[in-house]
Specification:
Helix 5 runs parallel beside helix 7. Strand 4 (95-97) and strand 5 (102-104) form a beta hairpin. The chain is rod-shaped, with a radius of gyration of 34 Å. The protein has 3 domains: 1-74, 30s Ribosomal Protein S18; 77-124, Classic Zinc Finger (Double Stranded RNA Binding Domain, 2-Layer Sandwich); 132-297. Helices cover 49% and strands 11% of the residues. By secondary structure, the protein is mainly alpha-helical.
């Protein structure tokens, strides 16, 4: 901080303990300590500090809290990390912009949110944990977790159905070919390959959806763990929760897309009624035909 012009050294015989001097005004007694800048400030510098947009929201220690001799240590890395502005790493998050649903530091406010409706986070953080926003966040996380469980259960049912379907229809195919075995050897292989491909594609898709859902659940658990870490600090909990809301929204969108893909294609061996008269037809015997035009979807309660 630049030295304030026109200041003369003042007497330092007030109070007990070692006299701390202003970092900007050599010889002038300090009356406040800025936690954010980690600087001692005299009376004039304190006033100047509180008038500037970029520093007016810094935390100042005065009176009984003034650290004479032993300034407080800088915050631990974990605290600094959760409170650090993502756009301006050297600044701390101080304000919540209601209009943009954004966490802001003083630089963000000055550059992007000066005209917005803002709230000083320490003023609202204490009541946040018991408020509706945090309650809704936890409810939405529980809903997402339940949806994952339901989807995994539905996939298990689909996998069993796919296996049963293949086994049953394959047996139908074999019984049908008994009457015309000599002609149908080659055709049988073609149909089996087609069914196997359909089966493999459906199983591969279902396994992939399983994998994605387990990943989403891990991400959800990570969100919940992060929130738990900050439950004893209202400000940090507020910041972590607001960031989690954005992450959860993306996770819910991903879950919605996954739920829309869960299912399988039902097929059956469609017997050719003209088989007795067209045994010499190279395209005779049977074909693999889907029972429905659409994939059979599980009936789940999707996120709104």
């Amino acid at each position: 901080m630049a030295e304030v012009e026109g200041r003369r050294p003042a007497s330092n015989d007030v109070g007990s303990g070692p006299t701390m001097h202003c970092n900007a005004c050599p010889g002038v007694k300090a009356t406040a300590f800025c936690v954010d800048c980690h600087d001692y400030l005299c009376t004039d510098c304190t006033c100047y500090h509180q008038r500037q947009k970029i520093t007016k929201m810094h935390t100042l220690l005065t009176g009984d809290k003034f650290p004479a001799g032993n300034p407080p240590k800088r915050e631990e890395d974990k605290t600094k990390s959760i409170r650090k502005c993502s756009q301006h790493p050297n600044e701390k998050i101080k304000v919540y912009c209601q209009g943009h649903n954004t966490l802001c530091c003083v630089v963000c406010i000055m550059l992007q949110h000066e005209q917005c409706s803002k709230t000083y986070i320490p003023d609202i953080a204490e009541d946040f944990k018991t408020g509706p926003d945090y309650g809704k966040l936890n409810t939405d996380m529980q809903s997402s977790d339940q949806l994952i469980v339901d989807c995994l259960s539905e996939i298990d049912k689909c996998l069993k159905a796919v296996g049963t379907l293949k086994a049953g229809e394959w047996e139908t195919l074999k019984k049908y070919r008994v009457r015309i075995i000599e002609y149908l050897d080659s055709r049988e292989k073609e149909l089996q390959a087609e069914m196997q491909q359909t089966h493999d594609e459906d199983v591969a898709l279902l396994h992939e959806l399983q994998k994605q859902l387990k990943t989403r659940r891990s991400e959800l658990e990570e969100m919940r763990t992060k929130l738990t870490l900050y439950e004893n600090n209202a400000i940090e909990l507020f910041i972590a929760a607001k960031r989690t809301c954005s992450q959860l929204s993306e996770l819910q969108s991903s879950l919605q897309k996954i739920t829309e893909k869960i299912g399988y294609r039902e097929y059956a061996i469609v017997r050719d009624t003209r088989m007795d008269t067209i045994l010499q037809d190279k395209n005779g015997f049977a074909r693999v035909g889907l029972a429905k035009d659409e994939t059979i979807l599980g009936k789940l309660c999707y996120l709104s």
